[in-house]
Specification:
250 residues, five-stranded parallel sheet, three-stranded mixed sheet, alpha/beta
């Protein structure tokens, strides 16, 4: 995978991309990247990338010309057709499923905006995806791009070392991840569940599956609405629901 990041502040990415798993992923050649400062593509003598909005209003709007030219230039450098991602609070919410989808691509372009917003023609005629990391507004798109890059890159083959790790993450199968324990078995009187020390892998798998369902029911029950439930999961959920009603009535 190759990633182009269109940004006015490339230095913001250095700490993220040169640390931890993302650094190791580069060393393994799992992905490559380059920063593209779209100010370098301006055609006006003052190198301005923004202007006042037609019709008046507060703030400045990013102009289309430098962003179009920057994207078209990096597209020409590679044979594959890229996904062009616009970071915007108006975009669809970024999810684990979207990360998995983007991890299948060969070329991603992230456009990180600043100021009041984008000229609408960028949205209409240039981007393939408009994404947001949440219902709040940031100073610019850089932090959102870092979050998405991390979520996508860790899914690339070999990056995590154990390819099963990503498949068991929260949200990957529509459930939150089960609890984890490690040594010591007894810490300040809090003990590890016996089943995890039993050596019975079938029972361990069943316990983990139940705990994932239970945790999802307790913390993010909305996720269960979009999941095709097994007969076993339905039985567990019915018991959890009954237990909740008993507690509420008590």
């Amino acid at each position: 995978m190759h990633i182009d990041v269109l940004t006015l502040f490339p230095e913001m990415f250095e700490g993220v991309l040169q640390s931890s798993i993302l650094k190791r992923a580069q060393e393994q050649s799992a992905f490559s990247y380059q920063y593209v400062n779209f100010r370098d593509y301006t055609e006006n003598k003052h190198n301005k990338v923004d202007d006042y909005p037609y019709g008046g209003g507060a703030g400045l709007v990013l102009t289309p010309q430098p962003i179009f030219d920057a994207v078209e230039h990096v597209q020409q450098q590679r044979a594959s057709k890229p996904r062009v991602i616009l970071l915007s609070p108006q975009g669809s919410t970024f999810t684990q499923q979207k990360a998995e989808e983007l991890a299948e691509e060969d070329h991603l372009i992230f456009i990180c905006g600043h100021y009041e917003g984008y000229d609408e023609r960028i949205r209409q005629h240039l981007v393939t995806d408009e994404l947001s990391i949440g219902d709040y507004v940031l100073t610019g798109g850089e932090l959102g791009a870092m979050v998405m890059m991390d979520a996508v890159i860790r899914l690339l083959p070999g990056v995590l070392g154990n390819d099963q790790s990503a498949s068991l993450d929260s949200f990957s199968n529509g459930l939150l991840e089960h609890p984890h324990y490690t040594r010591p078995a007894d810490f300040r009187g809090w003990t590890v569940p016996d089943v995890l020390r039993s050596g019975n892998h079938a029972k361990i798998d069943e316990w983990r599956h139940y705990q994932s369902v239970k945790r999802t029911f307790e913390r993010r029950s909305d996720l269960l609405l979009n999941r095709s439930l097994t007969e076993q999961e339905n039985e567990w959920l019915q018991k959890l629901e009954n237990h909740k009603h008993d507690l509420d009535d008590g």
